[in-house]
Design brief:
Layout lengths: L5 E8 L5 H14 L4 E6 L15 E5 L9 H14 L6 E5 L6 H8 L8 E11 L3 H5 L6 H12 L3 E5 L6 H20 L1
Parallel strand pairs: 1-4, 1-5, 2-3, 2-4, 5-6
């Protein structure tokens, strides 16, 4: 009999975009539906400042690096160990990368053939901070690296959530939407 695969959702978005808030809401919804979630949290530093939000969850912490590059192999190995040796498999798994994680590289780690029997990658959910998006896209206000990370979040997300719209005036919000639409359109032209 074939083993049931765990649906996996990857959350991406720049620092402060609202990924953790979204994750908490998703966990609440899953538990309300009677499902058991698991969470992978990634922090660049030695400590996870958000760990206290997830005390009741099955939690895999990835510290001291980014799961998209420096500790990508560690993520794959830890997930393989988790699914191989855990007595209770989760009904769903959420992976929250750092704010600078490249979702394409995270997906590369998740598509390792050894994980194929355990996970079913459902979606990359990108969270965009509408209130700061224009600032982050400006070559005068941010670095080339920041702009490239944001572009990668947009291009590799199967679902985009425009967050913090209540902090924008109508004109700014329309400008953000147009810039996002243009970036997504360019993806198809390349």
């Amino acid at each position: 009999m074939e083993q049931k695969k765990t649906p996996v959702y990857v959350l991406t978005g720049f620092l402060g975009s609202g990924k953790t808030t979204l994750l908490k809401e998703m966990l609440t919804a899953e538990k309300s539906a009677g499902r058991t979630p698991a969470v992978v949290l990634n922090e660049l530093g030695e400590a996870n400042v958000e760990k206290s939000y997830f005390n009741e969850e099955t939690l895999i912490e990835k510290l001291n690096g980014c799961i998209c590059c420096t500790i990508q192999t560690d993520l794959t190995d830890d997930l393989l160990d988790f699914f191989t040796y855990s007595k209770k498999k989760p009904d769903v798994m959420f992976i929250e990368g750092t704010g600078v994680a490249d979702p394409l590289q995270v997906m590369d780690g998740l598509t390792d053939p050894r994980l194929q029997a355990f996970i079913d990658i459902k979606s990359v959910i990108g969270v965009v901070d509408a209130a700061r998006y224009i600032e982050y896209q400006s070559m005068f206000s941010s670095s080339k690296e920041v702009r490239e990370v944001l572009r990668s979040h947009l291009l590799h997300s199967s679902l985009l959530i425009l967050n913090k719209v209540d902090e924008c005036d109508v004109r700014t919000l329309e400008k953000v939407k147009k810039k996002i639409d243009k970036a997504k359109l360019l993806q198809f032209l390349l």
